[in-house]
Design goal:
Blueprint lengths: L5 H56 L14 H5 L3 H34 L3 H16 L2 H12 L4 H9 L12 H25 L3 H9 L4 H12 L1 H16 L3 H6 L7 H9 L5 H34 L1
Helix pairs in contact: 1-13, 3-7, 3-10, 5-7, 7-10, 8-9, 10-13, 12-13
Length: 310
């Protein structure tokens, strides 16, 4: 009976150990690779956790009273929201948010089509930069710019007077019209980008096929481009409604006390009056109403889209 030499047995034993170590190392490497995506989510998760904690604190404070925010539980703050002043403020906020969304989509759709049709990457980058430029400027400065444009001696009134279209300056500042202009301008890029992305994903061959079958440009737009880009329209309009429903700077500077959106009332309760529990109740109700409205809006638009495609 032959026996392996000591050197061969040692080599075989070393190879077996190396194979065993490699087999043990592979599950560890796989577990490490599986955990990498969760490590990438860690910074965002921490940030969201802080926001959720702050939101829960605000919600808890809404059940307190002024001077005893954390030691008292009461629903009086929510019952006070049934007064006519706050009901009108909520309805005004929702109306301006929806009107701004409709106007923004109507004005932004042609711009989105133009961006989607640009083939030169440099030109597309330039147009995108110009579109996003207002987001780089402080909203406070933009609102002061609108004051200079819409004031009685501003650019718009001077132009109308010089053209003879009016005999006295129009009151555009401290009105719903002025606030609506500011809301539309502030949310314009947020609506154009989703619509342009949806239009860019529509194959050009669909338009060519429709044109070959005799459809004019208006028919192509209404029956092909608009239905296929409707997800982008819905996304853009939802962003505008949520963004403008909580607006504060624009209605505060362009509307003043004559356009009392809910953000203005929340600021008054937190600032001069120092009634944080009642302001927290206002904020909680605003968030809940906006979420309900957005859910209903998305459900109705999805149902409309199914009917349209049938």
């Amino acid at each position: 009976m032959t026996q392996n030499p000591p050197t061969e047995r040692a080599a075989t034993t070393g190879a077996d150990k190396g194979t065993a170590e490699r087999l043990e190392r592979k599950p560890r490497v796989r577990r490490t690779q599986r955990g990498l995506p969760f490590l990438l989510l860690l910074p965002g998760g921490i940030f969201l956790g802080i926001l959720i904690a702050a939101t829960l604190m605000i919600f808890r404070m809404s059940f307190g009273i002024k001077g005893a925010e954390w030691s008292v539980w009461t629903i009086q703050n929510y019952l006070s929201l049934g007064e006519s002043l706050y009901i009108r403020s909520i309805l005004l906020t929702l109306r301006l948010a929806f009107l701004s969304a409709v106007l923004t989509v109507l004005l932004g759709y042609p711009v989105a089509m133009f961006m989607a049709r640009i083939k030169n990457e440099s030109v597309r980058f330039l147009v995108t930069f110009i579109l996003l430029l207002p987001l780089f400027v402080n909203l406070l400065f933009q609102s002061y710019g609108w004051i200079l444009i819409l004031s009685p001696d501003g650019v718009v009134n001077k132009l109308l007077l010089s053209l003879g279209l009016t005999h006295q300056p129009l009151r555009l500042i401290f009105t719903e019209v002025g606030v609506l202009m500011g809301l539309v301008q502030g949310g314009f890029p947020l609506a154009v980008l989703p619509i342009a992305s949806a239009l860019r994903n529509i194959p050009k061959s669909l338009e060519e096929a429709a044109a070959t079958l005799g459809a004019n440009r208006l028919s192509v737009l209404w029956h092909i481009l608009f239905p296929l880009s409707l997800p982008g329209v819905i996304a853009g309009s939802l962003i505008i409604v949520a963004f403008n429903a909580s607006a504060f700077v624009v209605p505060f500077l362009l509307g003043g006390r004559r356009v009392p959106m809910l953000g203005i009332l929340i600021r008054d309760q937190m600032g001069p009056l120092l009634n944080w529990p009642f302001a927290s109740a206002n904020a909680a109700v605003l968030v809940v109403i906006v979420l309900i409205v957005l859910t209903m809006y998305q459900f109705l638009t999805a149902r409309f889209l199914r009917i349209w495609r049938q």
